[in-house]
Amino acid sequence: MTNPPRILVVDDDHAVVSVLRRGLLYEGYLVESASSGQEALRLVSQARPSLVILDIMMPGMDGLTTLERLRAVDSELPVLFLTARDAPADQVRGLDQGADDYVTKPFTFEVLVARVRALLRRYGTEQEPMLRFMDLHLNLSARRGNRGEREFDLTSTEYDLLRQFLEHPRQVLSRESLMERVWGYDFGGNTNVLETYVKQLRQKLEAGGEPRLIHTVRGIGYVMREE
């Protein structure tokens, strides 16, 4: 099974990076971040990302200079500018400099991720968005799971619950938070529904004799971790 596309977010605004990381992870992409052009160049030299989302106005090396240096070593790397510089002249300069797309802040995440998908398709790197932990994979488009080479179906609720665990690996999730996120209401102390679905998920994840991944944390809730 192929890895999902890896996106490098380059921005010195930690709030923007946090929003992008959370949203892109939810869409099934792998995400790395850099707060400067120098750090971005170092990360790209270590492992080529599938796409770079790049701010222009950064201290030290700005985004235009960063793009110029990226293009000097990799002319085919997809780069999308995400910046507050919204003047037409800035957009023309950014695209002429070699950016593949230009999105201005404030931005709508749904539009941004559509632009990301379009660029990945153009460069032939768009793949099925996937969440994974150990040998467990969840295909977000097909809404199906794999444990190693073994594939299994999921009901709508099982999918939503498993996605919560995969988005928060090794984090203890309380019963209250799981009920709120998956069912959307206060469970009022009745955990029977949640326990039933956790049992069903365990049966599907362990049907081939694989080790347990969803563990009970007594008095609190559950956690996805290695045994």
- H/E element string? EHEHEHEHEHEEEEHEHHEE
The CATH superfamily of the largest domain turns out to be Response regulator
- Approximately how much beta-strand content do the residues carry? 15-25%
The helix count comes to 8
Would you tell me which CATH topology of the largest domain applies?
Answer: Rossmann fold
Distance between the termini: 23 Å
Give the C-level CATH assignment of the largest domain: Alpha Beta
Helix content: 40-55%
Helix-and-strand structural type: alpha/beta
Topology, number of strands: 12
Name the poorly predicted regions.
none
Give the CA-based shape: elongated
Secondary-structure arrangement, i.e. CATH architecture of the largest domain: 3-Layer(aba) Sandwich
Task: Determine Rg (CA atoms, Å).
Answer: 20 Å
Strand order of the largest sheet: 2-1-3-4-5
Biggest β-sheet description? 5 strands, parallel
The average pLDDT score comes to 90
Count of domains: 2
